[in-house]
Amino acid sequence: MDLNLIAVIVGIVEGLTEFLPVSSTGHMIIVGHVLGFEGQLADVFDVFVQLGAILSVVFIYKERFARFFTKDGWDINKGLSVWHVAAGIVPVMLVAFFLYHYIKEYLFSPFTVAIGLFLGGLLLMFAEYRTKGREAELVDDVDKISIRQAVWVGIYQFLSLWPGFSRSGSTIAGGLLVGLTRSAAANYTFVIAVPLMFVACIYDLLRNLQYLSAGDMQVLAIGFVVSFIVAYISVLWFLKFLQNSKLTSFAVYRILLAGVTYWYFYM
User: Fold this and answer.
1) Which residues cross the membrane (predicted)?
2) Structural contact between residues 147 and 101, judged by C-beta atoms closer than 8 angstroms
């Protein structure tokens, strides 16, 4: 298949799934296997399309990120602060650093993805079940999140180190379980995703940049732009969706996809 077409397909998949609770890593592994797009170029490409998705969130939350560079952005008593962001990402960054080689070597397969998709779907269902009828008690504003809640969301984020579990799925479900509404949990999830994913992408990029050639730049650029546009639309749609809808449909989709993945690769 033409590499430019692959770039468009993978860019669309990344843009659609990076910030939805369905696991972009899982989808990328599955699509990569189906398309036969694997190896060093695929590894570098995956980083570039993730950077495109990250940039879309920076645009959507540009005022909030700009505030982090002001005095108020460091004040824990004036809404979501740098300290809230750090509480949600520093623990998982440390754990991910030490487990990086193990995760890359042993957990990047369709089988492990199917397990992550299935268990992550159950977690979403459980979170919805636990908060049913308690919506009025939940924190509905991202600026009212406590440091304690931020730490607990960060702990739930450990689950996302298993490919297929989903970073946004684990943090949004975790947010519900520690007392946040879906919208507040999603907004917090998207904000902390930027520094976390940026560091992870740069780390991956530096490890694989040596395998990149000048001839690959067109493919990388296509994937980057497609991912940016699709992710931008996807995030705005998802935030609107959460205002009146539950996460159950995503849970069902994940469980079905887990079954299809296992059937396609192992039956």
Assistant:
1) 44-61, 82-100, 106-126, 147-165, 185-206, 218-238, 250-266
2) no
